[in-house]
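User: Before I run my own analysis I want an independent prediction to cross-check against. Here's the chain; please return only the structure tokens and, at the end, one sentence I can use as a sanity check.
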Amino acid sequence: MLTLRGRAALAAGSTARWASRVTGRGAGAMIGGLVAMTLDRSILRQLGQDRRSVVVTGTNGKSTTTRMTAAALATIGSVASNSEGANMDAGLVAALAGAREATLAALEVDEMHVPHVSDAVNPAVIVLLNLSRDQLDRVGEINHIERTLRGGLARHRDAVIVANCDDVLMTSAAYDSPNVVWVAAGGSWSGDSVSCPRSGEIIERNGRDWHSTGSDFKRPSPQWWYDDTHIYGPDGLALPMTLALPGAVNRGNATQAVAAAVALGADPAAAVAAVSGVDEVAGRYRTVQIGSHTARILLAKNPAGWQEALSMVDKHGAGVVIAVNGQVPDGEDLSWLWDVRFEHFDDTVVVAAGERGTDLAVRLGYAGVEHSLVHDTVAAIDSCPPGHVEVIANYTAFLQLNRRIP
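Assistant: Structure tokens:
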């Protein structure tokens, strides 16, 4: 039940959102949420109460997993979700205010905001995907984020924690919680977890298993996992799973989304069918016609995300365009480019693009990748031979491209 002040705050936020739209300044979701929060600091708590919520967090895959979770939850009830990826407080307020009657919520939350957001909405389920370096000049040291998450989870011991046991840092964050559902969701990037976040000792790996050399901290046995054709769960559950989205990483995302929905009472088969139908997430993965080319657009924001995106690329098409900006939302420090393995391009036409295309071109040169440099991303696509082009872009380069194409 909203207070009188809360209703007034939402009304003011709705007016601000309308004004933003009619003046062409934007969709207005963020300004509407900001206005409402300014007038009533408890508005997020008021909007979150009386709903069963799932909070999804991690460095990579938040938007995709949240979209899949919302689809799976929709099999059991109405769902509020910040489907456009506005994952801080104002975006959450806007999403919840826009679906006041929904009894369920699937909320993507920035990893640094999870503790206080969880305190406000008291989620029934918290999904922990992965932790790695991201936006070096904003996020900072990831072991600090892990400790912050761990402390936040300690205040919500009734919540079900759906945690990726293949990720050392997220396993550490969830390890002390009493109600954990362990999911083998994958984790090909291990460059940020070479040492134990609890003891500082070396993490030793043997295939998918890992353990700390200085303590009994080790990879838990998963209750959910997947392979190339099926998803597996408790009590011998095995269901075929064919996704519309590409890559092993999205099979891991889907497995955590299904586990979260099942924790709230969804039928596993219905949940798998729902996540399998997700074919686009806020413009990611879609294929569009641009001039004489078809182009599939992938988003990547940090070394771990770039490795996953590069593994999905069709290297036998007309070309690959890699677009990199260095604006504040991207992180202005692009030193992470040197941690990404670009060396696996052989006979592929590669074009460096974006505002920081020159930085990328230098990295590609040191990787021995033949390439050209065309800063404008659409012009870079046009420079490729006719046919299908794969486009990988970081955050603002991705947004700029999507504004220019249908």
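Sanity check: The radius of gyration is 21 Å.
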